[in-house]
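Q: C-alpha cells for this one, please.
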Amino acid sequence: MIQESNKPHVFNLKSIGSSDLGYITVAEYQNQISFEIKRVYWTYYTPNQVTRGHHAHKVLQQCIFAVSGKIEFELINPNGEKLNFILDSPEKGLYIPKMYWRTIKFSHNAVLLCLASEIYVEDDYIRDFDEFINYKFK
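A: Here is the predicted structure, written as C-alpha cells:
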C-alpha cells in the first residue's frame, strides 16, 4: 500500500507480464492507493514541453501515472518549498496530497492518468499562485 503521508512521493507498482506478451500494472484502493478513487481522467496529445497545471487543490488527493512518455512535475507547498519529480515508466506513480501547487511538463506523446479522491468541484481549485501562498485553512 502507498505509504501514509501528507507529502508528495513516488511509488512503484508491480508490473506483470513479459516482452513476448506485454505487461499489466494494477492499482487498487486499499492495496496500492490509500484513498477511495472517485474520479479517473487522462490527458493526452499535449504538445511537447507545454507546461500545464498551474493550480492546487484544497481537498483533492491524486495518484498520477505516465502511462506513456515522460512527465515532469514541480510541486510547491504553501511554505514555498519546491519538489521535483519525473514519471517515465507506467509502473511508477506520484502521490500528490492536497495543497500542493503543481506545474506539469509533457514529453511528446505522453499520456497522464490520474486517480482522484474527489469528483470535479471547481471550488476545490486554487488557480492563482499568490492566493495559494496566502490561503488560510478553514
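A few notes: The chain has one domain: 9-134. Residues 59 and 98 are 5 Å apart (CA to CA).
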